[in-house]
Amino acid sequence: MAARPVCVVTDAAVDLPAHSAHHLPIEVLPITVTFGAVSIQHGRDPDLATFYRLLRENRHSPTTAAPSPAHTAERYIALLDQGYDILSIHLASTFSTTALQCARLAEELDSRRIAVVDSGQMSAGLGLMVMTCARAAAEGEPLERLEQMARAMVPRVRLAGALQSLDYVRRSGRVPGLPAAVGQFLRIKPLFEVYRGQVTLLGFSRTVRQATCRLVELVRQWGPLQETAVIHADNAGWASELAESLAPLSPSVPICMDAGPTIVSHVGPGAVGVAALLAN
């Protein structure tokens, strides 16, 4: 008996190359981004220009809300009724309740046909996991095999980046206020890494060139790479420079993509980052 097709479900904390969800079996659950009385649905509203205008002009710091359990259940049921099994890969549970909520829903609906994986990642790190599994799903891999693949990737995916300041991170409660104030005063660029659900502040760089060199050296230390992606928050020039510097380390040209509203709400405009899936 042939295996049922699998749809990879994720949430809008993911960052993916443009149109990837259109030709791969991927469904993205929306996350609500709110500026005071104004809200947008990231995952439904694709207008990044509007988001950046709100981010820069609104006096309210943006907040984000996980996909609602009711909407997630609705999408799970619809996919099951269409004959799909579901691999649900989500933002690290240290940052959001989404993975836990999805695991509860899977138990209620059909845990034999819905597998939920906590990625330990965000943004392009989560995106690399989702794309890898979706490609395999499109080739006919069954749910059991795809779940094994996803769980095996968790320790192989790393993400690092450089921010314009720690102000947005400070407002979201991710780092203490004193380092944020120091970083702003000195006009230096904070460097960070995300690995298995933990964010580590790596230090500061004074210039774009210095930050780029430090990120490239960090990626070199990660070891052999299978795939890389460069992400940016309205800073295509710096992202292009970073991708060019990373090219000799990667077996293929790094994917370049825009960061979505969910991650930018927490790191602020101007940030750049690199995500890597390490080789086996």
SSE inventory with pairings:
Blueprint: E1 6-11, H1 20-23, E2 26-29, E3 31-35, E4 38-42, H2 48-57, E5 63-65, H3 69-81, E6 85-90, H4 98-109, E7 114-118, H5 123-138, H6 143-153, E8 157-162, H7 167-171, H8 177-185, E9 189-195, E10 198-205, H9 208-222, E11 225-232, H10 236-246, E12 255-258, H11 261-267, E13 272-278
Parallel strand pairs: 1-2, 1-6, 6-7, 11-12
Antiparallel strand pairs: 3-4, 3-5, 8-9, 8-13, 9-10, 11-13
Helix pairs in contact: 3-4, 5-6, 9-10
3D shape = globular
For the record, what CATH class of the largest domain applies? Alpha Beta
Question: In DSSP terms, counting alpha (H) and pi (I) runs of 4 or more, how many helices?
Answer: 11
> What is the quaternary state of this protein?
single chain
Largest β-sheet summary: 6 strands, mixed
Q: What's the mean pLDDT score?
A: 89
Widest beta sheet: strand line-up: 10-9-8-13-11-12
Contiguous uncertain segments of 5+ residues = 174-178
Fold-level CATH name of the largest domain: Rossmann fold
Q: Helix coverage percent of residues?
A: 40-55%
- What portion of residues belong to β-strands? 25-35%
CATH architecture of the largest domain: 3-Layer(aba) Sandwich
Order of helices and strands: EHEEEHEHEHEHHEHHEEHEHEHE
Using only C-alpha atoms, the radius of gyration works out to 18 Å
- How far the N terminus sits from the C terminus, by CA atoms, comes to 31 Å
Task: Quickly count the domains.
Answer: 2
* Beta strand count: 13
Class inferred from helices and paired strands: alpha/beta
